[in-house]
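Case study 2.
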Amino acid sequence: MIIPKLHYISQGSTPEEHLENIQKACSSGAELVQLRLKDVSETTCLKLAEAARAITSHFQTRLIINDHYKIAKTVKADGVHLGKTDACPTLVRNHLYTWQIIGGTANTMQDCELLISKEVDYISLGPFRFTTTKDHLQPILGLDGYTTIMETLKTKTPIIAVGGITTEDVKDLLETRISGVAVSGAITRDFNSIRLFNELLNASSTQEQRHTFK
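Prediction:
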């Protein structure tokens, strides 16, 4: 299963704005969108997930639902992204369709190792730098943090960098051997940046396939 290299994490001050931004991301060439709603009821989340599924299906964009794995199954999203305090990936795997993917959040090497043992499909590792998207931010990793973790892990599980990432960071981040990036703020501010992100990420795709695992 190939995990897209660019993940757009939805942003918006209202649920409707999340949908508008998902629509803009899809029409700007996003391959994968994560619907990330906080502090909304299950009913509202389901309604928005259904609307997001309709938008992403139209553009043939993959849709990941943050946290709500039962809703991800109901709307037949492409998968679910689980935070560290959400349900266990192993339990969620038993609940989802076999073709749905599971991503997990990691902030440390230990987090990564735990998620790999639970056979997630990708790991979102961060934060790269300070970001206002999260209320309780974990220690900043920076390039050195990614380099150390990637060198030690030597995993085939795709590692996606996240946390305040801009187009200017992509080249250096790819040199740490991560598989891709998840972006919220930089894309929401300028949806045209999706094209540049995609170009920067794909420029190294041949190099990326030469991973050596000892």
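The chain has one domain: 6-203.
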